[in-house]
Automatic annotation (TrEMBL):
Organism of provenance: Prunus avium (Cherry)
Gene this protein is translated from: LOC110767360
Keyword field: DNA-binding, Nucleus, Transcription, Transcription regulation
Extent of Basic and acidic residues compositional bias: 121-137
Stretches with biased composition (Acidic residues): 1-15
GO BP terms in the entry: snRNA transcription by RNA polymerase II; snRNA transcription by RNA polymerase III
Family classification: Belongs to the SNAPC3/SRD2 family.
GO MF annotation: an example: core promoter sequence-specific DNA binding
Protein name, UniProt field: snRNA-activating protein complex subunit-like isoform X1
Compositional bias annotation for Basic residues: 138-148
GO CC entries: nucleus; snRNA-activating protein complex
Claim: Transmembrane helix is one of the keywords in the record: no
Length: 468
């Protein structure tokens, strides 16, 4: 969905583990937060679901798997599982195996049987005197049987050697096939094999997906254990101006309130409004048909009231806008082919208090873009990217959540004059500046605009620059 051009930077959140019964752990500890979840696919939006529905279905699935594993392990396997076919044998092992197979029926006689030599003339004359013709015939038949047996052993040995040779050739072919699909860093990349820029752009959001975020335990007040089963949500917050740039990503528990997430969201607009002494504590999340208003502060304004007034007083306009949203913003020419979207009804919107609403109370779609609005008209897209169960490798202290998994690196501008120091002031419509707007460090700004402590001219506007 969003393309993240910046590398992720680790932010140290705090986490306490309860090694003792009193819940106190003075030693500092680092735990790795695993990054689970599906592979990123653009425009992939799941069906309407909820934390409780996911939790019940996944727990039921796990119970079924445990029952299947326990029932199968209780049964005695009739046949042993052999992995000999997966073993890569050396040439010496293959030759030894061929010899053993050739002589497995004649273990006591591993060598070829000796064939008796023909007796000499002198011996034949002596045997002629000691035996008759019948004894000579028996010896002749015995020699023939020995020759036939030795011939059979030779053929068996040759056949086994040929079999072992075929095994060796098959192993060489398998090795060659595996080499074709393996990564060889020394090999040259062909021009046709260069990944397209489109594929690279799609893979950019996955840069930090395989890296684990370390959470350092330090000064979190209190310890609240996480009870199983608990669901963890990966929630992305996007930039208010650069709509498709991810600004932050959090790991939030399903039992946490929406205000716990809102208090962790960083936006430069909040700091600007505080500096101008015009900070507005109001705000809301719009998730599906639910407007979650932050009314913790007595001076907060219910942002949902004008929205409901507009829905009541401008039903036709609201219905047309909703049809356009449901159709995905089809253009006029596309509508001429596809046709108008009919039968779409406005959702029955409702308003709830943000500090009283937990994520498990809401229905949402994984991958869908929802709205976070604050400071009057500062809008952010939020996406619930992933949902999974908490497991032992996760941080087991509820007080550490929401955990910041990703923070966009700030874009720091340097002074346009010296090109060395960071900018602290920005001027607009400055006649002596080389750019409009123009960024200055403190030294360059005062050298250009002041003399003997007096401002040289004032027909421009100047603002304090904060890194966005």
């Amino acid at each position: 969905m969003a393309e993240n051009d910046d590398d992720s930077c680790s932010v140290e959140d705090e986490e306490h583990t309860n090694n003792n019964n009193n819940g106190c752990d003075k030693e500092e500890e680092e735990l790795s937060v695993p990054r689970g979840g599906p592979i990123f696919v653009p425009n992939l939006v799941g069906s309407l679901t909820s934390v409780l529905l996911f939790q019940s279905s996944i727990v039921q699935e796990l119970q079924g798997l445990e029952f299947e594993v326990s029932s199968s392990s209780s049964q005695v396997l009739d046949e042993d599982i052999s992995v000999d076919e997966l073993k890569i044998l050396t040439e010496e092992e293959l030759v030894d195996m061929a010899i053993k197979e050739a002589f497995k029926d004649n273990e006591d006689s591993p060598n070829l049987l000796p064939i008796p030599e023909e007796p000499s003339d002198e011996g034949r004359s002596k045997d002629h005197e000691a035996s008759n013709d019948e004894a000579c015939k028996k010896k002749s038949r015995k020699r023939k049987r020995m020759k036939a047996k030795n011939h059979d052993l030779e053929e068996t040995y040759i056949a086994n050697v040929e079999h072992v040779k075929r095994i060796k050739e098959k192993q060489d072919e398998d090795k060659a096939a595996v080499t074709l699909h393996s990564f060889n860093p020394s090999s040259k990349v062909n021009d046709c094999a260069i990944t397209s820029s489109r594929t690279i752009d799609r893979m950019k959001p996955l840069r930090s997906a395989s890296s684990a975020v370390k959470v350092k335990s330090s000064s979190i007040q209190g310890y609240v254990p996480v009870h199983y089963p608990e669901v963890a949500l990966s929630i992305e917050v996007y930039h208010n101006a650069r709509k498709w740039v991810k600004n932050q990503e959090f790991l939030v528990l399903g039992q946490q309130t929406l205000t716990e997430l809102r208090d962790k969201i960083y936006c430069l607009t909040d700091h600007v409004m505080q500096k101008a002494k015009q900070h507005d504590p109001s705000g809301y999340f719009l998730i599906e048909d639910t407007l979650c208003n932050d009314l913790r502060d007595p001076s907060a304004v219910d942002y949902s009231e004008p929205i409901f007034d507009w829905l009541r007083n401008s039903k036709d306009e609201a219905h047309k806008k909703w049809e356009w949203i449901a159709a995905g913003g089809l253009q006029t020419k596309q509508k001429a082919v596809v046709g108008d979207v009919t039968g779409s009804q406005l959702p029955h919107f409702r308003a709830v208090d943000m500090h009283k609403t937990q994520f498990c109370d809401l229905k949402f779609r994984l991958g869908a873009g929802y709205l976070y609005c604050h400071q009057g008209d500062c809008r952010h897209t939020i996406v619930i990217r992933d949902m999974r169960l908490i497991h032992p490798q996760d941080v087991q202290n509820r007080a550490a959540y929401p955990i910041l998994l990703f923070q966009l690196k700030p874009h720091i501008r340097k002074c346009y004059v010296c090109k060395i120091f960071r900018a602290t002031q920005v001027t607009i419509d400055d006649k002596w500046a080389q750019e409009n707007p123009c960024y200055f460090c403190d030294n360059c700004y005062y050298l250009l605009h002041y003399k003997d402590g007096c401002l040289l001219y004032d027909d421009f506007s100047v603002h304090e620059y904060r890194h966005d």
